[in-house]
Amino acid sequence: MNNNSNHSSFEAEDQVTDFGFRKVDQKEKPSMVKAVFDSVAPKYDIMNDLMSLGIHRVWKQIFIQELAPRPNLTLLDLAGGTGDISFGWLKRGGGTAYLTDINYSMLSVGQGRALNRGYVDNIRLFCVDGENICLPDRSVDRVTISFGLRNCTHKENVLAEARRVLKPGGRFLCLEFSKLIIPMLRPLYDAWSFQALPRIGQIIAKDSESYQYLAESIRTFPDQETLKSMMENAGLERVTYQNLSGGIAAIHSGWRI
């Protein structure tokens, strides 16, 4: 009787995942995340500026520079949303960019921005689940995910899929919020995350709960070393990371050799 009870307990734990600080059924999380981004999509870019005090633009420029765009290289931009990474790739001379997102609302904003910028020929937009990428093995040169991995239910599946679609010699890069490594700044950072951001979200986007979730999702995301190990377990090699702004964000890089 006890063995059966323990087995049931383990199964229940396996079916649970984080949604911010809450634990929810794994099957429920995708629709809950979708609701968040349906809500925030129209104000996503202005809220990014407010949330990061504009610093996210600097982080993304560093990230795009790391990609080393060239005309003969193709980019798969996962959770690309409103298109910042894809547009930066193209602006710096990269080849075809596949701008993808699982959320139609976010992708719609990205499509509008692409048209406004005149990006038509070298960009393709698709609704794609990063856990099940609809591309052949060894088909792209770069795979990126920027501020999207923490919203995925099975992060290890995303990393494995990224490696699968990379050509040998291809590179995966992830830009994500990470663990602050300057202890004296943590009280200020916590106050900004959990008090200021939901209030700003309520004022600008008329939605405090989504921004409460986004703040919580940052804290539950794996730290720098843990994500590095996850990437290595997915088969990526020469995995490194660099901290940005004292670890508020980090860029992780891995190669398919």
Structural class: alpha/beta
CATH superfamily grouping: Vaccinia Virus protein VP39
Q: Radius of gyration from the CA trace?
A: 18 Å
**Biggest pleated-sheet summary:** 7 strands, mixed
Q: For the record, give the distance between the C-alpha atoms at the N and C termini, rounded to a whole number.
A: 49 Å
For this structure, the CATH topology is Rossmann fold
User: What is the 3D shape?
Assistant: globular
| Element string (H = helix, E = strand) | HEEHHHEHEHEEHEHHHEE
Identify the CATH architecture.
3-Layer(aba) Sandwich
Number of strands: 9
Tell me the strand percentage band.
Answer: 15-25%
Uncertain regions: pLDDT < 50 for 5+ in a row? 5-12
Order of strands, main sheet, comes to 5-4-3-6-7-9-8
Mean pLDDT, to the nearest integer, reads 91
Number of helices: 10
Helix content: 40-55%
**How many domains make up the 3D coordinates?**
1
CATH class: Alpha Beta
How does this structure look, described?
InterPro entries: SAM-dependent_MTases_sf, UbiE/COQ5_MeTrFase, UbiE/COQ5_MeTrFase_CS. S-adenosyl-L-methionine binds at residues 82, 101, 129-130, 146. 47% of the residues lie in helices and 22% in strands. By secondary structure, the chain is an alpha/beta fold. It has one domain (28-255): 3-Layer(aba) Sandwich (Rossmann fold), CATH 3.40.50. A 7-stranded mixed β-sheet has the order 5-4-3-6-7-9-8, with helices on both faces. Strands 1-2 form a two-stranded antiparallel ribbon. Strand 3 (75-78), helix 5 (84-91) and strand 4 form a beta-alpha-beta unit. The termini are far apart. Residues 5-12 have low confidence and may be disordered.
